[in-house]
Write a structure and sequence with these properties.
single chain, 491 residues, six-stranded parallel β-sheet, 15 strands, 20% strand, binds NADP nicotinamide-adenine-dinucleotide phosphate
């Protein structure tokens, strides 16, 4: 088979008329084309049921790309890019549609060998049927050119459904053809966690239980549930944010260094650290997790007036390995928070002996802290003690700041640009492997089962625009720790 870069590629987007395609996928492809980052000619074919001519879809996408690509949009470049976009109306439930689609793709490809990347951007309930029909129609067969599939999140709703979906996938595709996407992994700041840890010598020697007291990973949103009640009532914050984004951030912050940056080496280490997370008994789940619900959640349209769905959750996990033994990793996420922020806080231990005591108790000295801001601010802060000038030996907290935007003049690329480029070139380092997804569900399912099946109390109520229920502060203090609540300051 020819190397990828010599081969034209066709990206087929199932769910073409949907939100993700117009808001993220097409703007990302357009910007990659503008930056000349695509190695080979790319054509895009959108598939959904709504009848549309090519021209209609192009016009619609021209408007949305202008809106979502922002200053990167340029009319002439769009006009040059638009002819590579095509539309095919069809229902994925019908096997015969795939035969027709394949014939249409072959006609576009003009009988030349062409790589294909299928993007599943429909409701997740349609993933199994699309995958099955791609297999049965011969469209997954890589003897006719590279065939790959990107599967959007969520990948299953529990371990069992994730396993079933993996079985369905592997009946049609080999694992190396499969790209399970979590757009957090395409963010520059998430990738920078790996560079920070493994591209420097000064952090890794202290990145362990000897120096780190706890790690807090937060993914808070200001928005409320809004029109997503039907989905949210089933998923809650836990399935929506923890199984994918928060556990992915945990793996980047805690995994061992891979010996090289390739898909399997990276993912082997991620799976290893997920497997080392200590399983909890039901009583331990109750003690090590906390649920919250914002005050007006039950009044949202479509929400059960007695709903116990958590819109906030905090979880304390322990990693049973040499590096992290007895270091709690706190994960938390909520809707209706005082600000939108995703951040990793690495809280270092206090100095073993404080000679500058001046009558202060050790708790008044803030220990070193490393703050990695993922979004919307993108940067790193390191907090450390300095002497207050013109005092005897008084100390105060100071900080070093690194802001991505100061060191990079252009707009930081949206995560989808990076991930689409990687999938087109076959690099799966930033995509989840089958065992990784299943191991993540193995961590999440027992907690969810205790919450759903055993807990008879309501989640703790909290006000909108707060940092969650006040009980969260007492909860973390029982282990001698404090939340680091800081709205993004790096702009
Ligand atoms: N939107 C986001 O920002 C976002 C972010 C991360 C992940 N995701 C994930 O991405 C996926 C798509 O999200 P979305 O927001 O784009 O959904 P959406 O707006 O509801 O779009 C769903 C698409 O599926 C098509 N469709 C439905 N039934 C079909 C059928 N039988 N045959 C062919 N096409 C069919 C719809 O078009 P027709 O009605 O015309 O057929 C529509 O184009 C979801 O799994 C979501 O969880 C979305």
């Amino acid at each position: 088979m020819k190397p990828d870069r010599d081969m034209a590629q066709t990206m087929v987007i199932f769910g073409a008329s949907g939100d993700l395609a117009s808001r993220k996928l097409i703007p990302a492809l357009y910007q990659l084309e503008c930056k000349k980052r695509l190695d080979c000619p790319l054509r895009v074919v959108g598939v959904s049921r709504t009848p549309m001519a090519d021209e209609q879809w192009r016009n619609k996408l021209g408007e949305t790309t202008k809106k979502f690509a922002g200053t990167a949009f340029d009319h002439a470049s769009w006009e040059a890019f638009a002819p590579s976009i095509h539309y095919f109306s069809g229902d994925v439930d019908k096997l015969e549609m795939f035969g027709n689609l394949d014939a249409y793709l072959q006609s576009l490809e003009g009988g030349n060998e062409s790589g294909r990347l299928y993007y599943l951007s429909t409701s997740p309930t349609l993933y199994p049927v699309i995958i099955r029909h791609l297999g049965r129609s011969g469209m997954a067969d890589s003897s006719r050119g590279v065939r790959r599939v990107i599967i959007e999140k969520p990948f299953g709703s529990n371990l069992e459904s994730a396993r079933q979906l993996n079985q369905e996938v592997h009946a049609s595709f080999d694992e190396d053809q499969v790209f399970r996407i979590d757009h957090y992994l395409g963010k520059e700041t998430v990738n920078n966690v790996l560079v920070l840890r493994f591209g420097n010598t000064i952090f890794e020697p202290i990145w362990n239980r000897n120096y780190i007291g706890n790690i807090q990973i937060t993914a808070h949103e200001e928005v409320l549930v809004g029109h997503r009640a039907a989905f949210y009532e089933k998923a809650g914050v836990f399935r929506d944010m923890f199984q994918n984004h928060l556990l992915q951030l945990l793996t980047f912050a805690t995994m061992e260094p891979p010996d090289h940056f390739d898909a399997d080496a990276v993912r082997d280490e991620k799976v290893k650290v997920l497997r080392a997370i200590r399983a909890m008994t039901p009583d331990e789940v109750v003690a090590n997790t906390l649920r919250g619900q914002y005050r007006s959640y039950r009044d949202e349209p479509g929400v059960d007036p007695l709903s116990r769905t958590a819109t906030y959750a905090a979880v304390r996990l322990m990693i049973d390995n040499w590096r992290w033994k007895d270091v709690p990793i706190y994960l938390r996420s909520g809707k209706g928070m005082s600000c939108r922020t995703t951040q990793i806080v690495v809280q270092f231990r206090r100095p073993p002996h404080m000679m500058f005591d001046h009558g202060k108790t050790p708790s008044m000295f803030e220990a070193n802290r490393l703050l990695i801001q993922i979004q919307p601010a993108e940067g790193i802060q390191i907090y450390f003690q300095t002497k207050v000038p013109d005092t005897d030996m008084q100390m105060r907290q100071s900080e070093f700041k690194f802001n991505f935007r100061d060191s990079y003049q252009g707009d930081l690329p949206d995560a989808y640009q990076r991930l689409l480029l990687d999938a087109l070139s076959g690099d799966a380092s930033l995509f989840a492997r089958n065992d990784e997804v299943e191991t993540a569900w193995q961590i999440i399912d027992p907690i969810r089962r205790v919450w759903d099946d055993f807990l008879t109390t309501d989640p703790d109520c909290y006000e909108i625009s707060s940092w969650g229920p006040s009980s969260a502060n007492d909860w973390i203090r029982q282990w001698g720790h404090e939340w680091f609540d800081l709205c993004p300051v790096l702009r």
